[in-house]
Design brief:
There is one protein chain. By secondary structure, this protein is of the alpha+beta class. Helix content is about 25%, strand content about 20%. It contains five helices and eight strands, in the order βββαβββααααββ. Strands 6-5-8-7 form a four-stranded mixed beta sheet, with helices on one face. The longest helix has 21 residues. About 25% of the residues are buried.
Length: about 210
């Protein structure tokens, strides 16, 4: 049976959300007309992430090869479903996917992992540059609140820094494991600049 990713999450979808993965999922926006965008509403967040629906999902990103995000149905979303609620109807939603991804990317880099990765100058450089960009972005978002940025610096490197300059969400593609476990492959991209008119680079290129 063919599964499809929701149009707000699917790579190459004209309705793909705009989401800076360094920020909370509440900052994600969808296009509603032309270049006009708006935050996702409760109906969007409760939409199934896939069609047909699934109750278990795994997320993988090639920039985080040692990390797997495991997503299961969130029972809290279904407690008010009413007397006609059927447990079989529960499924992984857009909110589940974005929330679980944000939670993982917001985790501090494990000291053991960092000790291993810091021996690679390419990875170390990527982390350092990404963290500096993140601090600058946070400072610009809260220009009058130095504590906000200082608190972020105190946490050190986060998992999202492994994305380097490719911190923008570029959609999911579908894949299946050998045991038929569904997977979302997370694609990311750089910010578009006025001097570049080419399409976003795939997340496998250098950062």
């Amino acid at each position: 049976e063919k599964h499809e990713v929701h149009r707000l999450l699917a790579k190459d979808s004209p309705l793909l959300i705009h989401h800076d993965l360094r920020l909370s999922p509440t900052s994600a926006k969808k296009l509603i007309y032309g270049s006009i965008s708006t935050p996702l509403n409760s109906d969007d967040n409760c939409d199934p992430a896939t069609n047909p629906t699934v109750q278990h999902l795994r997320v993988f990103c090639d920039l985080l090869p040692d990390t797997c995000i495991c997503i299961d149905v969130n029972p809290d979303e279904w407690t008010d479903a009413g007397p006609d609620y059927d447990e079989a109807q529960a499924c992984v939603t857009i909110s589940d996917v974005l929330g679980a991804t944000a939670h993982m990317l917001g985790e501090e880099v494990d000291l053991v992992k960092y000790a291993l990765d810091s021996g690679n100058p390419d990875i170390e450089g990527r982390l350092h540059r990404a963290a500096k960009r993140r601090y600058s972005m946070l400072r610009n978002r809260q220009p009058g609140d130095r504590t906000y940025c200082n608190d972020a610096k105190a946490r050190g490197y986060l998992m999202v820094d492994y994305l380097g300059s490719k911190y923008l969400f570029n959609g999911f593609t579908f894949a299946w494991d050998e045991d038929m476990t569904p997977w979302f492959i997370l694609e990311t991209r750089r910010e578009k600049t006025a001097s570049k008119t080419s399409s976003p680079s795939p997340s496998t290129t250098s950062l």
